Amino acid sequence: MNKIFIIVQREYITRVRKKSFLITTLLTPLGFFLLMASSAMIGNYSQGKADVAIVDDSGLFKDVVFPDAEDQSVYFHKVGDKFEHLSGKLSDKEHSAYQAVIHIPANFNINNPTNPMMSGVYMVRPGVAKRQYINERMSDAVSKLRMKMLHIDEETQENMQKKVEVNFTSLSNDKENKQYAEAAGVVGIIMGIAIYISLFFYGTMIMKGVMEEKTNRIVEVLTSSVKPFQLLMGKIIGVGAVGLTQCILWVLLMALIFMVGLPLIGISAGSQASHMPQMKGADIDPDSFAAVIANISQLPLFEMAILFPVYFLGGFLLYGSLFAAVGAAMGEDGDQQSLMVPITIPIIISFGIALNVINNPDSPLGFWGSLIPFTSPVVMSSMLPFRPAWWQIMLSIALLIGGFIFTTYIAARIYRVGILMYGKKIRLKELGMWIFAKA
Asked: Is residue 415 within a helix (H) or strand (E), and if so which, with residue range?
């Protein structure tokens, strides 16, 4: 046990002291912050301003008010000029007051608006969001005219157009409202992605480290004083500790950067939401970001802080042993890539299940995915914000420990032979012989 601890210490200290570790630990949170901040600021300027002229030859819309977009990206102007005259001016960008012209023909039929239908022309492309907003406003205007013909007053019209949204709450937890689900979904997918990427990144690091020691014949010296199993465990635990340390530092640095950085550039949870695009027809919820931030405190943060490292280390130990076995068994890059495929497929599948869990936390797919050891690290991490039952968590952890013991046993049998095997292409049949051979 003391030798394993020495190897863990050596792996941990050596990798933590590397410049690459320090650079990625510092720059990753900063890069994430710059991405979020730039997206928010770009949102303020990316819409642009579009003045849209409405030529109403039918006279039906003379009393209809066309509301401008709340984000000041679309302005409507009812004009008395001829459609041909205004559309001809659009090509002169410097002198044209409008970027688009909508024509409502004289024989426009509000009961059958597609015959004849409204037409429009533009010089500066309005984009998908603006087109959708314009179409929504013109459809609203037609609807109001239809209701007016039925002698429905304006107040009743407004009430008829109001949307209804069901406010769901959980029987087991009254805090789980719509905003809670959004916050849980965002945090859950971030945690799932963190483990998903870490399994690939640090698993490959273990594999390359084993292959490097094998190629340089360093392992021959090491095995003279420690057993291959001790070397395997020390390397897996050491690199896993490095990964966990980096993830914890990322969380702390991101929290610090966002707390300090957002106010400096004039963005807060509420202000960022207000600066986001608010095109009513674009299916964008401007309050979603603020809702996520406001409801994060309602999540089971204490349980998540305890269980996330458990699933991180459990998943890493399970897959780290397999990656180490690949590095020990294969000496050529082609062999390495081919043997990595059956290891990486379960990781990819687990991420697909995690995406399903965000939309349906109580689905049978999520339940079984949270129990199977090869998928539970990613799936259960995504499920933790939704407060799964404790018996499900305990069973999941027990199966994960069992899976780790099983994969470590298999990996150790391969590692003890493969680490000293040089210059020979290993076949799957031989791997099976290594696993079942007597120690």
From this structure: helix 390-418
Alpha-carbon span 273 to 424, nearest angstrom? 60
**Domain limits of the chain?**
2-29+177-436, 48-161
User: What span, in angstroms and rounded, lies between the C-alpha atoms of 188 and 385?
Assistant: 6
Count of Cβ atoms closer than 10 Å to residue 270 Cβ: 13
User: Two tokens at 197?
Assistant: 């990427």
Burial of 197 (0-12, 13-18, 19+ CB in 10 A): middle
> Can you say how many angstroms the Cα of residue 298 is from the centroid of all Cα atoms in its chain?
20
**Alpha-carbon distance 271 to 41, whole Å?**
11
**Treating both helix axes as pointing N-terminal to C-terminal, what angle do 364-371 and 333-359 enclose, rounded to 10 degrees?**
140
Q: Rounded to 5 degrees, what are φ and ψ at 51?
A: -95, 120
**pLDDT tens-digit readout, 307-354:** 988 998 888 888 888 888 887 776 555 555 666 778 889 999 999 999
Look up residue 245 and give its two tokens.
Answer: 């340390």
pLDDT at 181: 75
Write the pLDDT tens digit of every residue in 250-267.
Answer: 878 877 877 776 666 555
Omega into 385 within 30° of 0, i.e. cis?
Answer: no
Model-wide pTM > 0.85: no
Beta bridge partners of 121: 101
Element (DSSP H or E) covering residue 8: helix 2-16
How many angstroms separate the CA atoms of 317 and 314, rounded? 5
Domain 48-161 CATH (choose: 3.40.630.10, 3.40.190.10, 3.20.20.140, 3.40.960.10): 3.40.190.10
Closest CA to 72 of 269, 273, 271, 277: 277
C-alpha 415/C-alpha 405 separation (Å) is 15
Q: Does residue 195 sit in helix, strand or coil?
A: helix
Whether 319 and 375 have beta carbons less than 8 Å apart is answered as no
